Amino acid sequence: ASTYLGGSSTEKGFDIVATANEVFVAGNTFSSSFPGVAGSYDTSLGGYSDYFIAKLNTSLSGLTLATYLGGSSADDYQIKLAVSGSDVIASGWTQSSDFPTTVGSFSQVANDIFVSRLNTGLTTLAASTFYGGNAGDGVYDIAVLGSNVYVAGSTSSTNLPTPSGYRTTAYGAGDGFIAKFSTTSMTLTSATYIGGTSDDQARGIAAHTDGYGT
Fold it and tell me: How many whole angstroms separate alpha carbon 59 and alpha carbon 103?
């Protein structure tokens, strides 16, 4: 089975997650008429482009619901998804200072990443935060394990928040980073730079239990 998915303008797909009963797709859209958004968390295009998250049945014959996710500026780099229980976790890169966040979140410093949690019905933004420093930051992968969300990416920032990190200061012109957030509140619990004296990027991440914790 296969299907088209999009509105009247241009779309890019960046990630897909399949569960036993549903398929979640995330990407970027320039369409003000993206299908299936009625009744969702965000029903209108907020900027020149926004991210979208869409939910289909596993046979790809029906679009269950879709939502926009973004602010008033272009949100078009990439978005990564993870689905855990009743939660959809999304992380990407945004230029929008008004990207939706929740109480207690980090404020935007430069072009930052975001980490957001929605319900699998795509009707509620439960928790959302910016994460970044004084320069450009990007995300490449996300993993969820229990009550923790792990994000991997790259940064040119020299003041990235790195509580309890292996490396708390920048080392090269550009470094990779790994950050750990509470799934419930999207509170940052630990983070680290990772890299050497040249440019580095953390392109993938996986999380598993080792028998002694998570």
Answer: 38
> And the tokens for 135?
């320069």
Rounded-to-integer distance, Cα 97 and Cα 73, Å: 8
Rounded to an integer, what is the distance from CA 204 to the centroid of its chain?
Answer: 14
Q: Position 165: which residue type?
A: G
User: What is the Cα–Cα distance from 106 to 129, expressed in whole angstroms?
Assistant: 6
Question: What would the pLDDT profile of 14-39 be if each residue is shown by its tens digit?
Answer: 999 999 999 999 999 999 999 999 99
* Cross-strand bridge partners of residue 213: none
Q: What is the number of H-type helices and E-type strands within the chain? A: 0, 12
Would you tell me how many other CB atoms lie within 10 Å of the CB of residue 62?
11
- Distance between CA 75 and CA 147 in Å, rounded? 27
Pick from 211, 190, 212, 194: nearest CA to 203: 194
Question: Which residues are paired to 89 by β-bridges?
Answer: 82, 117
Look up residue 153 and give its amino acid.
G
Residue 60 has phi, psi (to 5 degrees) of: 65, 25
The rounded distance, in Å, linking the Cα atoms of 69 and 28 is 9
Rg for the chain, CA atoms, rounded = 17
For the chain, the residue count is 214
Quote the tokens at residue 18: 């399949």
The 8-class DSSP code of residue 86 comes to: T
pLDDT per position as a tens digit, 130-167: 999 999 899 999 999 999 999 999 999 999 999 999 99
